[in-house]
Write a structure and sequence with these properties.
- The protein has nine helices and three strands, in the order αααααααβαββα.
- The chain has a three-stranded antiparallel β-sheet, with no helix packed on it.
- The mean pLDDT is about 85.
- A hairpin with a 7-residue loop joins β2 and β3 (about 175-180).
- The chain has helices spanning about 15-20, 20-25, 25-35, 40-65, 75-90, 100-110, 115-120, 135-150, 185-205, and strands at about 125, 165-170, 175-180.
- By secondary structure, the chain is mostly helical.
């Protein structure tokens, strides 16, 4: 699905290239990672793992489409894992569990206003009313849980190529929703959210200006 980011092994990911679209192009991405490399060690040790771990989970999710084409629930699972870990590293969570809570934090507190607006309009119920950001995040999180807890990867899905698509309501499977929200949009939101989380860590822990 994303051939420009393909490499043979997860250890070979070119992080600058991987984040290029999230940072506005190859040049901006190179500057951003050069900036991070010049930060104090105690700060790079927070920022780099966040960016690298998110990229690795997204990379695995990208590869799933080659093995299970048309079953985006697998990709949702890995992209939601990436969102959760970004939030936990951003807020220095040291415990276990609270996965849904930190997915909420990612979409509600870390993502940009633009992306929150996208999520708030992503799904419409049978009455034509859009879900709010939290309920949209819950729908995505419930797809992740279906895969992780029950191995169900075929019950829930997302739109494809921008066409309006009918999906099951996560909390009430007998009810249906419509959406034009696709896996490509979720991927972009997660990568840009990771950059936002990294920038927030930099601002909180350094006097250096925000970049990105």
């Amino acid at each position: 699905m994303f051939p420009e980011f393909k490499c043979d092994h997860i250890a070979d990911i070119d992080f600058e290239r991987f984040y290029a679209t999230a940072l506005g192009g190859a040049g901006a991405s190179g500057e951003f990672f050069a900036f991070i490399a010049g930060l104090p060690l105690e700060l790079t040790s927070k920022v780099k793992p966040l960016l690298h771990q998110v990229a690795r989970m997204v990379w695995v999710g990208d590869r799933i489409d080659d093995l299970a084409r048309g079953r985006p629930a697998f990709q949702v699972m890995f992209y939601l894992i990436a969102a959760e870990l970004a939030a936990k590293l951003r807020f220095d969570f040291q415990g276990r569990g609270k996965s849904r809570e930190y997915v909420h934090k990612f979409f509600e507190e870390i993502c940009s206003d633009e992306h929150r607006c996208v999520l708030a309009q992503a799904f419409q119920n049978s009455g034509g009313h859009s879900l709010n950001v939290r309920k949209a995040a819950d729908y995505l999180y419930d797809i992740r849980c279906d895969v992780v807890h029950m191995g169900s990867y075929y019950l829930s899905t997302l739109a494809h190529n921008g066409h309006r698509f009918i999906v099951q309501a996560a909390d009430e499977p007998h009810k249906m929703m419509t959406t034009t929200f696709g896996i490509e949009q979720l991927r972009a939101i997660v990568l840009e959210g990771a950059v936002n989380a990294a920038n927030a860590l930099i601002q909180e822990n350094s006097s250096l200006p925000q970049r990105g």
